Amino acid sequence: MYAFDFERPATIADAVKALADEDAQVLAGGQTLIPSLKQRLAMPSKLVSLSGLAELRGICSDDEGRLCIGAATPHAEVAAQDGYKALARLAANIGDPAVRNRGTIGGSLANNDPSACYPAPVLASNATIVTNNREIAADDFFRGLFDTALEQGEIITEIRFPRPEKAAYVKFEQPASRFALVGVFVARFPDGVRVAVTGASEEGVFRWSEAEAALGGDFSAGALEGVTLDGSGMIEDVHGSGAYRAHLTGVLTRRAVEAAG
After folding, report:
1. Are strands 46-49 and 24-27 parallel, antiparallel or unpaired?
2. Where are the chain's structural domains?
3. What pTM does this model have?
4. From CA 46, how far away is CA 90, in angstroms rounded?
5. Cβ(122)–Cβ(141) under 8 Å?
6. pLDDT, tens digit only, all 261 positions of the chain
7. φ, ψ for residue 30 (rounded to 5)?
């Protein structure tokens, strides 16, 4: 570690003010940031902790029936809610108990790790990411590896999830980290099906449009017969080739459809 300033603001306005310094960085749950600091992969001059902002924590429903989750809500609380069961099951399988009790949904989305679980349900559910000054549709939020639509000093305050008729998430996890080697979230709404894939692509989370089209007319695993991805643009590492991840995406999508019922 190294020397840096630390602020723990009491209001969102104070947090935004503290982040006006271009070299300041938000500290949410710290499950990614703290290891990065230890390895000097990140070296901000100031950390702005959001842990004191009670207004960023909690789960409720809004007038439109959406499940609204405060950005500082830890994974364990998301796992305990019963308003969106597919999302709860996903959260219950993130990391280990220590990670689930410290890590936050907002921190995960702002970091946008290409193998993180949360981007998949956010994109598949067509969720809205609310910040201190605007609302961002999920389709516009994710920009690529560790890149989002957030601007300097912008803070995620809430995520609003429309609730699908059916949904499920299936991931093939890397056993040491429990990140997704590939994870697929499938959600069926009255106007169509959305399929989001995490862990597979070099560009991060993405929607699989061909699978969505096939499932739109027949929401069954059989509808995906012959629907495939090639390995181009997929992550290649010691855990699997691009072709392997492409094949695994198809397998997990079929399993997710079956799990959704």
Report:
1. parallel
2. 1-50, 166-260
3. 0.94
4. 32
5. yes
6. 668 888 999 999 999 999 988 788 888 988 777 778 787 777 888 888 998 899 999 999 999 999 999 999 999 999 999 999 999 999 999 999 999 999 999 999 999 999 999 999 999 999 999 999 999 999 999 999 999 999 988 999 999 999 999 999 999 998 888 889 999 999 999 999 999 999 999 999 999 999 999 999 999 999 999 999 999 999 999 999 999 999 999 999 999 999 998
7. 80, 10
The region that residue 66 occupies, defined by phi over 0 for left and psi between -120 and 50 for alpha, beta otherwise, is: beta
Domain spanning 1-50: CATH 3.30.43.10: yes
β-bridge pairing 166-173 and 156-161:
unpaired
Phi-psi region of 58 (alpha: psi -120 to 50; beta: other; left: phi over 0): left
Superfamily the domain 166-260 falls into: CO dehydrogenase flavoprotein, C-terminal domain (3.30.390.50)
- Through-space distance between the first and last CA atoms of the chain, rounded to whole angstroms: 49
238, exposed or middle or buried, with CB in 10 Å at 0-12, 13-18, 19+?
exposed
